[in-house]
Amino acid sequence: MEKKSPSLFNLAVIVGALGYFVDVYDLLLFSIVRIPSLKSLGVSMEDIDKTDILSIQMAGLLIGGIVWGILGDKKGRLRVLFLSIVLYSLGSILNGFVHTVTQYAVVRFITGLGLAGELGAGITLVSEIMPKEKRGLATSLVAGIGLSGAVFAYFIKVQFGSSPEGWRTCYFIGGGLGFLLLGLRVGVLESGMYKSIEGKQVRKGAFIMLLNNGKRFKKYITAILIALPNWFVIGILLTFSNKFASLMKVQDPIDPGKAIMVAYAFVSIGDILIGFVSQWFKSRKISLWIFHIITVIGVIWYFHLQGAAGSTVYWVCVVLGFGTGFWAMFVTMAAEQFGTNIRATVTTTVPNMARGSLVLVTILFKSLIPSQGYFNSGWITGIIVFAIAFLALALTEETFGKELNYIEA
């Protein structure tokens, strides 16, 4: 009897999507409640921008990405999914109890460690259980639904953030959602591909394998660099949209939190549609080129907003959000380029390395400001970021329809 092909809406896809929803909610919640939460802890407005808790959270993501990735290959995708959900849910709840900036930073680091495992484990699992014909669509659903967590975080902040201590409630909600997710996770089965290598004398989860082989190293680095524009847009253009708008004499004040919310609403739409674009062209690379070009158009528009109305800025955020809605495809391509014995390591570290690249992009941006000024530093950074990403995409192999049931020697 022929085995029935898994549905796009099977439990693994649903849990992956909801898990990433909670992941994105918590990941961006700090940026959304940063000012009221730090003010509540006694930090003055002058010192808030000097309190770099976001970089500490990103450090947790980078370290966690490597740890969870290795564990995902050594111990299984489901165990990582379970443990990472527990850790970031506990971290989110603890965020609601902090009373000093130091405590806040430590707990954000712990939360970052937990958040690092969710997407990679989920995408690896979904990639391995879905047939190659549906793989791109399934991972696009995971990311598309998951990324709407940012929009949910913004509205939760609006609902509960009006009081001085309302930000704590936002964190409690995130932790509660995580623990609710654990109940769904119970019915998900482990990947058959992974189970087929359990107990065998196969080198699993060896991060060094990505560094000591020239061909694998090139694939790994290019997989990361493809996503540089995503974090340039989010971490520079959207996060500092109020500052850029002021320099361009935009007619109305711009709320960076609203800019992020608007963009992520369309990131979510883009991440779902890119799966269908990839399916239509039967190519991962063509779909990524299309979305990168849309992002370039959005960036060019962004730097030509002199004297524009505030509403126009938010329309640019729509274009930027839609264009950067390639997160699912970028992570799926990373999963498809490597064997089962190191796939979780790759799929978990690649998105977290890409997230961590924001630190380097920010350093580049800030280092240019003294000589080029704030506005010019923005577009110069953009040119450099897109040049690197385009080169990486050109060097990346096509993976559409690739069989994944193999191991790396």
What can you tell me about this protein's structure?
It is a single chain. This protein is mainly α and 409 residues long. It contains 17 helices and no strands. It has helices at residues 11-40, 45-48, 53-74, 77-95, 101-129, 135-147, 149-160, 166-185, 192-197, 214-225, 228-238, 241-247, 256-281, 284-302, 310-323, 327-336, 343-395. Helix 1 runs antiparallel to helix 5. It is globular and about 60 Å long. The protein starts with 10 loop residues before the first helix and ends in a 14-residue tail after the last helix.
Strand and helix layout:
Elements: H1 11-40, H2 45-48, H3 53-74, H4 77-95, H5 101-129, H6 135-147, H7 149-160, H8 166-185, H9 192-197, H10 214-225, H11 228-238, H12 241-247, H13 256-281, H14 284-302, H15 310-323, H16 327-336, H17 343-395
Helix pairs in contact: 1-5, 1-6, 1-7, 1-8, 3-4, 3-5, 3-17, 4-5, 4-8, 5-6, 5-16, 5-17, 6-13, 6-16, 7-8, 7-13, 10-16, 10-17, 11-17, 13-14, 13-15, 14-15, 14-17, 16-17
| Biggest sheet layout | none
User: What is the count of β-strands?
Assistant: 0
- Report helical residue fraction: over 70%
pLDDT below 50 for ≥5 consecutive residues: which ranges?
Answer: none
Q: Treating each run of at least 4 consecutive H or I residues as one helix, how many helices?
A: 17
Percent in strands: under 5%
Query: Overall pLDDT, averaged?
Result: 89
The N- and C-terminal alpha carbons lie at a distance of: 34 Å
Tell me, briefly, the overall form: globular
Instruction: Report Rg.
Output: 20 Å
Q: Based on helices, strands and strand pairing, what is the structural class?
A: mainly alpha
Helix-strand pattern, N to C?
HHHHHHHHHHHHHHHHH
